[in-house]
Each structure stands twice: as C-alpha cells, then as structure tokens.
Specification:
- This protein is an alpha+beta fold.
- 26% of the residues lie in helices and 36% in strands.
- The chain has a six-stranded antiparallel β-barrel.
- β19 and β20 form a beta hairpin.
- α2 packs antiparallel against α3.
- The longest helix is centred in the first third of the chain and has 36 residues.
- The protein is elongated.
Length: 404
C-alpha cells in the first residue's frame, strides 16, 4: 500500500516578520530615548508670604475689663408737699430741665389767703403791743409819784411781754404760710431729664401721695456701676489711692468707646456669693452717649508698665512645648523661637523672655510656615492702609492687661 506524503510547509517566513517588527520597535525606542532632554534639577521651594512687625520698647497700660450698667448719678421722684389741685404743668415728658425750673403749679389761693391772714394777725398784735406799751409807760410814771401800785405796773409789763410773744408766733405763722405758698410751685431740684408724667392738670394731689408726679434723672454727670473679681481689689484700691483712675465705657461688643470717666466709689463690702467687688465710675456724659439702664463694657486702668518689650498679640503662637514666635533672621528665614509672655490683650503682648528689641516677628501667614522656611516678608500695615511705623502695635484699641 503506497502512502502519498504531503509536502511540509515552511514556517520561518512568519517568524522572521515578527523578529523584524521587534527590532524596529527597539530601534525606535532607542532613538526617542536618545532624543529626549535630560531631566532638570528639582526646583527650589517657593518663599512663603508673611507679614511682620518689630519688637519694641513701649509703655503698656494694665487694664481690667468688667460688665456694668449705666445709672443716674441722682434720681428724684417729684412729689407735692401740700394738698391741692394742679393748675399748670411747665414741662414736657422727657424734657431736660435745669435746677430751679418750675415744673408744676398747685392752686395758690388757699395758701395765699392763709398768708394774708397771718400777716393781718401780726398787724393786729403789733397794734395791741403799742397800746400796752403806752399803758406800761403811764403806770411807771404814776408809780414813781406813788399814784399807782407796783403790782399794776408788773401786771402791765406781763401783758406787754405776752403780746410780744404773740407777735413772734405771728411771724412764725407767716413764715409757715409763705413756705406753703412757695410749695405750690414745685421746682426741679437739679438739672436732669424728666420721665413719664404720672398725673395730669386738674387732679388733686396730697402731701401723703407716694406715686409722685414725675421722676427726674441726672444724666450729666452720670454713673456706671460695674463689678470686678475680688482678687483685683488690691490693685484697684492702689490705683484709686494714687489719684483719679481712668475708666472707659464701651459698647456691648467692646469695639466703641462711648465715654471716658474716672473711678468714683469702691464698695465697702465684697459680695461673698459672687466673689466680686462693686465699683462706681463717674462720667461727664456731655454728649448723652450714656443712658440710664444701658449695659456697657468697662475698662479700668490700674497700672502702666514702663518701657517693656511689646509685640503684636498675633505674633504669639501656641505649640506643644509652650508659646513661641516666628522670628525672621537676616538670611530671610523664619525660625520658631520660644518666648515667655507676661501680659497680653487687645492687640499687644508683653514678652518677658525670648526676644530682643528690633527683631522681626511674623504676625500673619504662620499657617504655611515651617521652622527654617524662607519667607517673603512685608511690614504690617497701619489701619489707614499705610505702612506702620516700627512700633510693635497692631490695629485696635488700648490693650487690656491680662496674665497669660
């Protein structure tokens, strides 16, 4: 049996094609690799933009904050001292009145009649006195000639003395009647602002009435009553003894100074329930910025630290090891420097240790800083947009001294 063999196919041409494609790809890769530019060196890190201020020597006022309420320096409820019908009102509700200004007039006629009667009674008694004195003189002349007894002379002398006493009583009655007549016109006891009127013309008032006619509150000057912790009493008392201790009254948000005054009274007892001492300050209040019942923040100056090292409060940072500040060196790098702060508040901090005069401290931009980072520093601007002088101060009011 003959088996016919089929011719064997040659497979090497396909393999050769694959090999040629591989060689071509390798050659193209080598060409691109040789033509690619060499990798550049790593770029330097960008500088961190920050704002700085300089540490300086300056006076630092030590002040304490408090919460207070405005109250009139004087308050009076106007009442009548006599009975009668109100005939006239000379003021309007809420009006400013001056001391001595008439406020209310009560019917004067009964009191004018009483005064006239007292004057007439005195005139009658004075006429009787003149007659009795003439009789006394006659009796004395007759007694000298033994035509009248001494007993008659003594009796007439007693009658003269009695009439003189009546005249003295008449004078007292006249003074009383004139006083009651003056009471029919009620006048302002001091300069102040009237409140709501409690009674209208035509009503009858009595001296025993308790409600009163109107209330007057003295607004110039005016008082602010506030409290401070009892631990501050020694410092407050020392400041009070040195002289007028300045006090500022501020709006409830603490941003606006409403008025400036002085400490007037320190209470004689510490409130044991709250551990506070009550104080009262006096304000001229010429512009009526303070009003009775208004709640205000207070700021009392108790001392002034002379020529201490001061930096903006924003320069003080809190770290795991305590307080520190970023100090910009001559090489333009910010270095974290440990510091000790004695007092701080309202924009400034007193540095007791860690900084020297003239050093530049970072006050903004610390969030992106690392120790030793290069910075692009610019001076701290003043509130008006200009570059601030090297004062170490920050925008804001006077500092409030607080132990850190």
């Amino acid at each position: 049996m003959n088996i016919e063999r089929k011719p064997r196919r040659r497979r090497w041409p396909a393999g050769l094609a694959i090999l040629m494609v591989g060689l071509g790809s390798y050659a193209a890769w080598r060409h691109l690799a040789q033509a690619a530019p060499a990798p550049q060196a790593q770029a330097a890190p960008a500088k961190v933009p920050v704002t700085f201020a300089q540490a300086v020597k300056a006076d630092y006022p030590v002040e304490v904050d408090g919460l207070g309420t405005v109250s009139p320096f004087k308050t009076v409820t106007v009442r009548s001292r006599v009975d009668g019908e109100i005939t006239r009102m000379f003021f309007k509700q809420g009006q400013m009145v001056k001391q001595g200004d008439p406020l209310v007039e009560i019917d004067r006629r009964p009191y004018q009649a009483a005064l006239d009667q007292a004057i007439a009674k005195k005139a009658q008694d004075e006429a009787s006195l003149r007659n009795d004195q003439l009789n006394l003189q006659r009796f004395q002349n007759l007694a000298q000639k033994s035509f009248e007894s001494q007993q008659a002379v003594d009796t007439q002398q007693a009658l003269v003395d009695q009439v003189k006493a009546q005249i003295q009583g008449d004078e007292a009655a006249i003074d009383n009647a004139r006083t009651n007549l003056d009471y029919t016109t009620i006048k302002a006891p001091f300069t102040g602002r009237t409140g709501f009127r409690q009674i209208d013309p035509g009503n009858i008032v009595h001296a025993a009435d308790q409600n009163g006619i109107v209330t007057i509150a003295q607004l110039q000057p005016i008082a602010v009553q506030f409290t401070e912790p009892q631990d501050l009493l020694p410092a407050i008392a020392k400041a009070f003894d040195r002289g007028p201790a300045p006090v500022e009254a501020l709006s409830s948000d603490g941003q606006t100074v409403l008025s400036r005054g002085t400490l007037a009274v320190i209470d004689n007892t510490v409130n044991q329930a709250t551990g506070t001492i009550s104080l009262k300050a006096r304000f001229d209040n010429a512009d009526n910025a303070l009003w009775p019942g208004l709640s205000v923040d207070t700021r009392l100056l108790v001392d002034t630290l002379k020529q201490v090292l001061v930096v903006p409060e924003d320069a003080v940072q809190h770290g795991p090891s305590g307080l520190f500040a970023y100090v910009i060196g001559d090489d333009g790098k910010a270095v974290a420097t440990p510091i000790q702060v004695g007092m701080s508040g309202n924009g400034r901090a007193v540095v007791n240790q860690g900084l020297t005069v003239g050093q530049k401290v970072v006050v903004s931009g610390q969030a992106r800083l690392q120790n030793g980072a290069e910075v692009e520093a610019r001076p701290l601007p003043s509130p008006d947009g200009k570059i601030a002088e090297q004062t170490g101060l920050q925008a804001g009011g006077n500092p409030i001294g607080k132990a850190d």
